[in-house]
Amino acid sequence: MSASSFGSFVKYLIMYIIGFTLGSYGGLFSESAGIINIALEGSMVFGAFAGIIFLQGMNTWVAGSWLVTTIGGLLIVYLLASIIAIIAGLLFSYLLSFVSIKLKADQTVVGTALNSLAVAICTIFNTAITGIDSTEVANNIFSQVLRIDTGITFIDYAFSGLNISVLIGVIALVCLWLVMNKTRYGLRLRACGENPAAADSVGINVYRMRYSGTAIGSAAAALAGFVIFSCMPIGTWQISALGYGFLVLAIEIFGNWKATNIIFCSLFFAFFFAFAPTFTAQISIHPEWGLNNSLFGQRAFYYLLPYFLALLSLVIFSKKSRAPKAEGIPYDKSTR
Amino acid sequence: MNKFTSAVKKGFRPFAVFTHFCNKKPGFRSLIAGIISVIIGLLCGTVVMLILSPSHAGVGLWTLISTGFSTPELFGRAVYQAIPMILSGLAIAFAFKLNLFNIGVTGQVTIGAFASICCGLSGANWFVCMIVGGLCGAVAGFIPGFLKAKFNVNEVLSGIMVNWVLYYIIGIIGRIGIPSSFKDRATPSELMMIPEAARMPSLGIPGMTGVSVGLIIALIIVVIISIVLNRTTFGFELKMTGRNKFASTYSGVNQTKSIILALTISGALAGICGYMLYAEPGTPTKFVWDSSSNTLLADGFNGISVSLIAQNSPIGCIFSSLLLTLISAAQNSLKTVSNGAYNIHYTELIKNIVIYVAALSSFFVMLLTRLNEKHDGIPYFNRGKEVALKKEE
Questions:
Q1: Nearest-Cα residue of chain B relative to residue A237
Q2: Contacts of B111 (CB under 8 A, 6+ apart)
Q3: CB contacts, 8 Å: B291 with chain A
Q4: Which chain B residues are Cβ-neighbours of A299 within 8 angstroms?
Q5: Chain A residues with CB inside 8 Å of B60's CB?
Q6: pLDDT band at B385 (very low <50, low <70, confident <90, very high)
Q7: Domain limits for position A231
């Protein structure tokens, strides 16, 4: 494999591993608090859209200034965009948490409805803001500025187009891991998902913990969406999360609701997701390998593998699976 | 003394009678909750219209409601688009009776469509194609059911996994497994249109050529499913398992059997839906098998919405799918009457608001009964019971 394709493999890998882990942590935080968050897909769409549309806005408002023409300026712009994505995720979470905590609605059902609602809202906003009747947003407007030209092919391909949101994602991951495993807050959050009545009896406000758990989760997923879809080397982004929201949910359950396991599970999926496009691109330029018409030459095969293996491992390890006990059940103080 | 007689003894109170029906008759409750959610959804939609372009809001709302009924062509289109949605909604609703969320419907629809189109292209007639689609869907539904029953794998998770596995398997088969005569010559990532003989025969209603025998089949299936659910031992066992797993095990219901059967039947319905999506009598849609876009068919997810608005009632699925397609019918004329202020995605927004509000229906029911409690002085005892039941699970 040449240096250029190995470089783009590494780029995909970075992008996916940060995105998938963050998204799964999003699921982990809401489910630890006892709220099933099927709406991760919606959060991803919402966050990515808010961030990317902000980038477009900056491109028109301050066109030509140092903010959008130098890498230093873009650091600030992308930092702001990431923060906006996170805020969008926080706002979005209340659509889920309010109805499932206060109004005691079925969380799975609300989450599913929110996934399509998010896409619809973003499409309407897209037309209202840009004035073009389209479901696409350009996500490569700054690709010329973000290009790295060191002369070393591997580094050029691996790091061109990546922006500061990846770094913010890493910082967020470390913080979330610490919060979940090393703080009092994380312990209380998990208590609210396991046995809310017991948590309530020792003075923890279960409702507040659930609101905050969902908010953090949704914000993490929104940042994940922004990381993936602002770094993805495609010209235009169709407003959709390509099913990654469901994938991170699967990763989270696959990782058995444990913050450390989730990192390895997302590495597993990210590897295949990065491998598939780069390897099949190699196959088409190397007809002498004779893989073009065989099973192992199909891109779909390499996308299929992680799902299939995950399904197998779920069956094998199903005895060990331990979901938070009170997951999905609205907490009612009067039944304590 | 029950609530109804006490209400009558205190004189005629329409509101008390109404809430009594809400409490005691689940069908009536679903209907009311559905209607409330549709009204609130339309109201929210009007608010959005007012924000986007206040001057067109009135005519916009009228267009939204009336377009679907304006011409026989538009109404006919709404009806035939609703046919497959009835079945996918029914698939979700059926599994929901057992508290199983069959998110794998998407994959089952996809494999059903692919298999039945390939079957049609190799020369089978329409009925065979439909059965093949249903069988493939059933097999796809069996997998999550088997895993749930035997290994206790979460059916949402295995459903998602199976969806993608099927999607990519179709991608591989499409590339190396089927003869090139099946593929479209201009765009090889699409299958050929299903041949005339394999399309559903049209009922021949003037002006509505798209309305086919599929409508009758879908209605028959709805009736069969509601009879099975409400009048047979099997249906009772299903519903009991959904209500309280432990009680049903105690009284001798075979859990493994009910879970596997429920998801398999659900899958079969989804498979038939897949066939009907691509076999309307006029000009059927082409099936895109290419997996480079990495997006699943949206039609399975439509089923979730249909079943949501119908509050998981089989009969309700007919009306809710018709509602969704009638709203979609307004798509283009809404853009015309508002000079482009409300674009074609606007109907999607309305539909999704309706779906979101429909998910809150249990809250409306609670609200109604609480009002009644104040009104009548009788505590709403059912609510406590429901919560206690949920807790035991």
A1: B293
A2: B136, B137, B139, B140, B166, B170, B271, B274
A3: 299-300, 303
A4: 171, 291-292
A5: none
A6: very low
A7: 15-256+322-335
Put simply, whether B366 touches A (Cβ < 8 Å) is: yes
From the CA of B343, how many Å to the nearest CA of chain A?
Answer: 7
Alpha carbons B206 and A28: distance in angstroms, whole number: 56
Q: Where are the alpha helices (DSSP H) in chain B?
A: 3-9, 14-24, 26-52, 57-70, 72-96, 105-121, 126-151, 155-176, 213-231, 233-243, 245-250, 255-277, 299-309, 314-329, 331-337, 346-358, 361-376, 381-392
Domain B53-359 indexed as CATH 3.40.50: no
Where along chain B do its domains lie? 53-359
A residues 47..106 contacting B (CB < 8 A): 95, 99, 103-106
User: Which tens digits make up the pLDDT trace of A249-259?
Assistant: 888 888 888 88
Whether residue B308 lies within 8 A of chain A, CB to CB, comes out as: yes
Chain A, nearest residue to B103 by Cα: A112
Looking at the partner chain, which of B52, B356, B359 has a beta carbon nearest the beta carbon of A128? B52
Q: Quote the CA–CA distance of B224 and B265 in Å, as a whole number.
A: 12
Specify the DSSP element, H or E, that contains A291: none
In a domain, A32, yes or no: yes
- Mutation pick from A311, A317, A322 vs chain B, by most beta carbons of B within 10 Å, is A311
Q: Give per-residue pLDDT as tens, B31-74.
A: 777 788 888 888 888 888 888 777 777 888 888 888 878 888 88
In a domain, A291, yes or no: no
Tokens, residue B344: 């074609």
Vertex B334: Cα angle to B332 and B340 (nearest 5): 90
Residues forming beta bridges with residue A237, ordered by sequence position? A137
Q: With bands split at pLDDT 50, 70 and 90, how would you rate the model's confidence at B22? A: low
Asked if the structure places residue A70 within a domain, the reply is: yes
Best CA proximity match to B317, nearest among B134, B18, B89, B115: B89
Q: Do A108 and B156 touch (CB under 8 A)?
A: yes
Domain membership of residue A1 (yes or no) is no
What's the domain count of chain A? Answer: 1
pLDDT of residue B375: 55
Nearest to A120 among B160, B292, B345 (CB): B345
Tell which residue, A201, A222, A213, has the closest CA to residue A19. A222
**Interface mutation vs chain B, best among A314, A321, A325, A331, most B CBs within 10 Å:** A314
Min distance A86 CA to chain B CA atoms (Å): 23
**pLDDT above 70 for A336:** no
Strand partners, B190: B288
The two structure tokens encoding residue B317: 């699925």
Contact B211, B76 (CB under 8 A): yes
DSSP B232: S
- Residue in the block written with tokens 């922006």: A163
Mean pLDDT of A13-33: 90
Interface test with B, best of A129, A254, A298 (most B CBs within 10 A): A298
Q: Does A129 touch chain B if contact means CB atoms closer than 8 Å?
A: no
Inter-chain touch B343–A133, beta carbons under 8 Å: yes
For the entire predicted model, the pTM comes to 0.85
The values of phi and psi at residue A286, to 5°, are -120, 75
Q: What is the DSSP letter of A319?
A: G
pLDDT of residue B270: 92
The pLDDT of residue B143 is above 50: yes
Nearest CB to B359; choose among A105, A135, A293: A105
Q: Give the mean model confidence (pLDDT) for residues A301-321.
A: 80
pLDDT at A291: 66
Residues of A in contact with B324 (CB under 8 A): none
